[in-house]
Write a structure and sequence with these properties.
- The complex is a heterodimer of chains A (365) and B (204).
- Chain A has 365 residues and is α/β, with parallel strands linked by helices.
- Chain A is 29% helix and 24% strand.
- Chain A has helices at residues 43-49, 59-74, 91-95, 132-139, 166-170, 185-194, 199-209, 249-260, 283-297, 308-317, 350-355, and strands at residues 10-18, 21-27, 32-37, 81-82, 105-111, 120-122, 149-152, 155-158, 176-177, 216-224, 228-235, 241-243, 268-271, 300-304, 330-337, 343-348.
- In chain A, the strands form 4 sheets. Chain A has a 6-stranded mixed sheet with strand order 9-13-14-3-15-16, with helices on both faces. Chain A has a 4-stranded antiparallel sheet with strand order 2-1-5-6.
- In chain A, helix 2 runs parallel beside helix 4 (132-139).
- The longest helix of chain A has 16 residues, at 59-74.
- Chain A is globular.
- Helix content of chain B is 47%, strand content 11%.
- Chain B is built from 8 helices and 4 strands.
- Chain B has a 4-stranded parallel sheet with strand order 2-1-3-4, with helices on both faces.
- The longest helix of chain B has 16 residues, at 122-137.
- Chain B starts with a strand and ends with a helix.
- Classes of the chains: A alpha/beta (365), B alpha/beta (204).
Chain lengths: 365, 204
Amino acid sequence: MAAPDKSRFIQDITIRNFKCFEELKIEGCGQFNLILGDNNVGKTSVLEALLVEDDWDQENIVVARLQRVRLDKYGTFPTTMVGQDEPLRGLVEVFARNADAAAGFSIGIKRRGQDKRPPFIMQLKSLRELGESVKQVVRSLRIRGQHVIWMKHGEEHDGGFTPLSEPLYTGLNLPFLSLKALYGPDLIEVYSQTVTPSTAAKEEFVSALAGMIPNLTEVELTIHPLLGPAIIARLAEQDLAQPLAFFGDGSVKMARILLQIPPAANNRLMVDEIDTGIHYSRLEVLWKATLRAAIANNVQLFITTHNEECLKALAQVLETEEFAPYRAECRAFTLRRLPDGSTKSYARDLVHSMENDYEIRGGAL
Amino acid sequence: MSTVRIFVEGTADEQFLRELIADCCAESECRRFVFQPLGGKDNLLAPVHWQSQASFFQEITDAGGTNLVIIDTDNSHTDRVDELRKFQEATSAQFATFLLPDDNRPGELEDLLFDAVPAENQQILTCYDGMLDCLRAAVPPFKVPNAKEKKVYVYLDIVLPDPSEQRKLIQPPKRPFRGVSHWNLSANGVEKLRAFLRQHLLTT
């Protein structure tokens, strides 16, 4: 079998003026990357920055991805005021560290075996400067509890609660699992796209999920009398099939991770706080299933966690015969806020650090 | 206040140094310090670990803090200094070093502990050494493995009352060094390490 093509895997990342970062460099990424650090140091922001692709000239996708993540996380998006010749505010102001400088933000990516390309730059622009596809995204802003004030040719237009441009969202294949990404209609959609078309994919999914749900024999889509369309799980020696959501956050989280890895094939997936909702005794099960799926689909992972048990579980998994060949692909990066306010990443050898009880989760020095 | 990170070989070294710092540096004048047990000096000195270890040094330097490396000299002070120099040159890590027992002669933590045995108890160590000499001189000679660590246990076994609460704390990292008559942390042989710690840990 030919070696997987890892040329799309990110090797180095340079983030400028994005959220809390004036500048952050993360160099030497592997296939499996842990982003560690204290609260509010910017771990999730690194994952968000990775929503940018270096070979895009499609601002609309970037806008839509960042907007979606923002809405998933906070449920709101700030009121946007747009004039034909006024700078487009809102998204850039939310994500740029210093929007007043009109510098916007930039994210540079160097892939394996490639020279560094010019960074993606998102700056404040006037409506006139935007391409039609970006205008479409801006117009589709769905603000929960707020109105979008849309200025057009000097005439105020109340565009509040404009229906979301569904194709932009559902077609996004957002490679980002937020902390709150649990059970929802989109999970059913991902299931139908990922598992339903392939018997082998379904068997692998059930087999992996059985590590979290003992006696699991079958998973299928159905119309539940209370929930409507639902993923249900069937257990051995039980007639009753229960919705997956009834098996707890840990099972749903693992299902979501396993379902979103295949669509990210030959690219990357970002998972925020992977251990949330998972009992410590299941962490090795989670890691084995996650790594197995990522290896099979050639997916690069960027994952945050605060949990030492989670790190130790991964280190133990990487010492098993099955995963030891991938130990060198595992990197841990500790983010630290320095006295001058800047942020820096420090690369660690995860397995060696865990073997010797080194503290790599960041925090106060 | 900037942090001092103290790299040591293991928890036994950490515990001894914690007590020594408490003895020679008033808490109100002492910089914040954290220990990083290496799990053996090879985890620092083996080139395969250099880059990962260097990141721990660099984060302290970036934060305006100080790194201290306190490990055993073992057989040769020159060789150990040379190994640390190679690590420093390869990684640009910034740190100050003290090699046990006295940053000069060959040896390890246990040699420093023997220096901290009060004068009135030194004869115990002399007797023990005599027993080892006798074992080695036997025909054929007897095997005397890892004698220094056992020498510490034998010493404590002799000086501690039986039964006593202290006997429950005979093993590191619970072994007390302060407030007990069988260790003298102000002994001449410990003074050089005390001065090193005071130099880097005291704020004034």
